């Protein structure tokens, strides 16, 4: 679906699918250059990263293997507690691999700080992070991000993989959710 299909649920479109695609073209070119001659392994973090993984990987001009993790925050409903439970681990041994973690969004940074430390301990040749969106004003811990699509305001955003109560992931654009939807 596109933003006009659910315009009553959005207060603003932050980035259209065309803008996202154009930015991903630039990032893919950077990644191609940075990993030239290296065997790249992309790791997507379910569920939100499905869209960016599918689009970014197809824009690369070189081979890239893919694997997936599913994680969940510990805590009584406290998303981003910083301690994550691995619901589905990788199928791939990271030893000696050049790993690029692909995420839809970095919000507080707590999830990725934990995950990157966990993966770095598995002996990769290199490890880096790509995030389509980042909320600088929400960051609670620093996370080293090699490739960022867009820095966005600290609003409730949906689309391009990001959901509210399981909906809006399949919105092609990134929009700000109207407060009446969740209040
Ligand atoms: C999102 C995103 C990151 C995490 C970032 O996942 O994909 O994994 O939140 O948040 P943080 O920076 O505050 O730690 P979410 O928990 O919404 O799961 P989902 O991808 O399945 O929607």
Protein traits:
single chain; alpha/beta; 3-stranded antiparallel beta sheet; globular; binds 1-O-pyrophosphono-5-O-phosphono-alpha-D-ribofuranose
Could you explain how this protein is built, in words?
There is one protein chain. With 183 residues, this protein is of the alpha/beta class. The chain contains four helices and nine strands. The protein has helices at residues 17-34, 50-59, 110-120, 179-182, and strands spanning 10-15, 40-46, 64-73, 84-88, 98-106, 126-134, 147-151, 157-158, 174-177. Strand 2, helix 2 and strand 3 form a beta-alpha-beta unit. The two termini are 23 Å apart. 1-O-pyrophosphono-5-O-phosphono-alpha-D-ribofuranose binds at residues 45-48, 79-80, 103-112, 163.
The average pLDDT is: 94
Give a short account of the largest sheet.
Answer: 6 strands, mixed
The helical percent reads 10-25%
What spatial form do the alpha-carbon principal axes imply?
globular
The whole-angstrom Rg is: 16 Å
Largest sheet: spatial strand order: 4-3-2-5-6-7
Strand fraction: 25-35%
Unreliable stretches? none
Structural class: alpha/beta
- Give the number of helices: 4
Q: Element order, helices and strands?
A: EHEHEEEHEEEEH
Number of strands: 9
Distance between the termini: 23 Å
Bound molecules: 1-O-pyrophosphono-5-O-phosphono-alpha-D-ribofuranose
